[in-house]
Design a protein that fits this description.
Oligomer: single chain
Number of strands: 23
CATH architecture of one domain: 2-Layer Sandwich
CATH superfamily of one domain: Chitobiase/beta-hexosaminidase domain 2-like
CATH class of one domain: Alpha Beta
Number of helices: 17
Largest sheet: 7 strands, mixed
CATH topology of one domain: Chitobiase, domain 2
Shape: globular
Length: 666
């Protein structure tokens, strides 16, 4: 029997007899040894698990049974190996470690690795030596190779073909460890604003697991085989709350405008995640000791230090301390960068943590004024992980990552390279592929593929996507993100064509043209499109909107009366409507807008009362789509959009340029 190590299972591993497809599609060798797992005239095989199977092994068997039954319409049983003295007669399936697959040695496989072994009478799927999520990943890989896809979290978002029979090529495949050990999309569910239903939350967890996300996305259900819990949120205020410490230790807090202050503004709180609106006094020895002890207390006694980290990330973008001791931590050649003081402070905490809790790790989100690597700190402590937040100018989605200048991504590549030179033990990319700044179509599939492949050269070990999941307009991108970070070498063109065919059914041709036109428009945009889709509104010129509208209309005609495909197209059509209405707003601004300077910036925007009113109509349209199906990620209470209103109405995305210069084609 041949054994292979594989990046992902080869396309010809599984030979399936698909109802409605010719055998020529499979192109397998007539000489290849095959196993007929399920055929119409035979009793289907039983699934066997160990009598003491782990929760993930049991759940993997249940998932396999459920989908094999959906695929073939045949009922299967799950049994334990407890009563049988020898392997069962006839064909059978083994899931997890079991006496009936004793020839498979998983002792050298890590948590996320798996084996799929096809013998003439048995199929065995086993996971890593710890018997956790690896077996689930093996089952999901197997099911995908027989045609199952989880395109959206809802039950109506999955694709399960109808099979008359399943035939498999005989052989053993061992999956290597994935390139990215941390893969997360902010829960993978429906909303980052906690307004989803319980059903949606549970669907989102399962969808994340099935697509191999391993951060907080699947949740902590023991059946799901554990998670990687890297915490890198803005922590300063949470760890040192002003309400508790300011009265006794004002010196721990920010010197701002000549005073140690509770809050940036005398009027009080600024935002819920940082009511002070200020950072801490990072040079203060007492603050350093208190901060370190708080982190140490979080880490002590934990048995999962290899999969967790503790945040040391400053508060979200706000002023740093102006005292002389803090300013002395900066590089005098660049007083605007806070990277040196933040990294010095982080290293102080890291050294104390290493003494008290060996093996514990810290996570620093390199963000805002501390995104660039430090210039006078020459090395980061080995227990510090760096998460590079690629927000705003750190991400340009109209160009390949290493495209020639002008290309904002060049600075990003240099940043990754310099973080690597600081001997950082683990670098992670913090992405914003999903639309926090744009709720319409966001065609970044090929952008994601390019970046995910090239991050590997910079020692990047994981990718997190701060997802604002507008599933209607951006569902294709939501689906392909976990696919790409699980397998960066995914055949994207093949996966796209499968999506067009499986998800849209009779509308395949029109929707392929729709998505391809979108991706081409992004690539050809004369203006940048950066994190969260900011700048995307300028891509939707009237000519493109008209072309896309005709394709959506054609797709809807092709699926009329077919409820499943009508439902899947509903969100796409709403996304196009969002873009079309935005285009109309920009046309109004061009027609009767007044050129208005942007305060404190070099750029201008066009102020139009009619455009302002039209934007309110757009907002009403978005809220009118709310219902059982997730379409737009938007809160039910103000602020409704994070950035869309300011970008569309105030040119906030390009506040250093004149908006009137952008609108020639509108």
């Amino acid at each position: 029997m041949k054994t292979h190590r594989l990046k992902s299972l080869p396309a010809l591993l599984l030979v399936v007899s698909l109802a409605g497809f010719s055998s020529a599609e499979h192109c397998w060798s007539a000489e290849a040894e095959r196993m007929r797992l399920i055929v119409p005239d035979e009793r289907p095989p039983d699934i066997f698990i160990d009598a003491y199977a782990t929760p993930p092994e049991k759940f993997a068997a249940q998932e396999l049974r459920s989908y094999l039954e959906k695929l073939t319409g045949r009922a299967l049983s799950i049994r334990t190996d407890y009563w049988l003295k020898t392997a069962p007669a006839g064909k059978y399936i083994v899931v997890g470690q079991c006496r009936f697959a004793a020839d498979i040695d998983a002792s050298r496989l890590n948590t996320e690795q798996f084996v799929i072994d096809v013998a003439p009478e048995r199929v065995a799927i086993d996971g890593g030596r710890d018997r956790q999520r690896g077996v689930l990943y093996g089952v999901y890989e197997f099911l995908e190779r027989v045609g199952v896809h989880w395109y959206r979290p809802e039950p109506w978002g999955e694709y399960v073909p109808k099979l008359d029979s399943i035939e498999l090529l005989v052989g053993r495949q061992i999956a290597p460890e994935p390139d990215y050990s941390y893969r997360s999309g902010l829960g993978g569910g429906f909303t980052r604003h906690a307004e989803c239903t319980l059903d949606q939350s549970e669907w989102g967890s399962l969808w994340s697991l099935r697509n191999r996300l391993n951060g907080s996305d699947p949740g902590s259900d023991p059946r799901f085989g554990g998670q990687v819990s890297l915490r890198f949120d803005h922590i300063y205020y949470q760890l040192i709350p002003v309400e508790k410490y300011f009265d006794k230790h004002p010196d721990y807090f920010c010197l701002y405008n000549g005073q140690r202050r509770r809050t940036q503004s005398d009027s009080g709180a600024t935002r819920p995640d940082n009511p002070t609106g200020l950072q801490l006094c990072l040079s203060n020895r007492g603050l350093q000791e208190l901060f370190a002890q708080k982190i140490i207390a979080q880490a002590q006694g934990r048995s999962d230090l290899s999969t967790v980290s503790f945040s040391v990330t400053p508060n979200d973008a706000c002023p740093f301390c102006e005292c002389e001791e803090c300013k002395a931590m900066d590089d005098p050649r660049d007083a605007t960068s806070m990277s040196n003081r933040v990294c010095k402070f982080t290293n102080i905490i890291a050294r104390q943590l290493a003494k008290e809790v060996p093996g514990a790790r810290l996570s620093l989100n390199a963000y805002s004024t501390w995104t660039s690597p430090p210039t006078i700190v020459k090395r980061m402590e080995p227990n510090v992980l760096i998460h590079v937040a690629l927000i705003n100018g750190w991400a340009e989605y109209t160009k390949n990552f290493d495209a020639p200048e002008p290309n904002w991504n060049r600075a990003t590549m240099d940043s990754f390279r310099r973080w690597k030179e600081l001997d950082v033990s683990g670098i992670y990319a913090y992405e914003y592929y999903s639309g926090y700044g744009w709720k319409g179509p966001l065609p970044v599939v090929r952008t994601m593929a390019d970046r995910v492949r090239k991050y590997r050269q910079f020692n990047v070990r994981g990718i997190y996507n701060e997802t604002s999941p507008s599933w209607g307009p951006q569902g294709l991108e939501m689906y392909l993100f976990p696919k790409l970070i699980w397998n960066p070498d995914l055949d994207v063109e093949r996966e796209l064509n499968l999506y067009y065919r499986n998800f849209y059914g009779p509308a395949e041709k029109a929707m392929k043209a729709y998505h391809e036109a979108l991706m081409q428009a992004l690539e050809q945009s004369p203006q940048p499109v950066f994190s969260g889709g900011r700048g995307m509104h300028l891509v939707f010129k009237p000519k493109l909107v008209q072309e896309l509208g005709a394709l959506v209309d054609e797709a809807q005609r092709q699926v009329r009366g077919q409820g499943l495909f009508e439902r899947r197209l509903k969100g796409v059509a709403a996304g196009h409507e969002f873009a079309a209405r935005t285009c109309d707003i920009l046309r109004l601004k061009k027609r009767d807008g007044t050129i208005t300077p942007i305060a404190g910036k070099r750029g201008t925007f066009l102020y139009s009362p009619k455009a302002e009113a039209s934007f309110q109509d757009l907002l009403s349209f978005v809220h009118g789509t709310a219902g059982n199906d997730a379409i737009f990620d938007v809160q039910s209470q103000p602020p409704y959009f994070s950035y869309v209103d300011n970008d569309v109405l105030r040119n906030a995305a390009f506040e250093y340029l004149r908006e009137e210069d952008f609108l020639a084609d509108f």
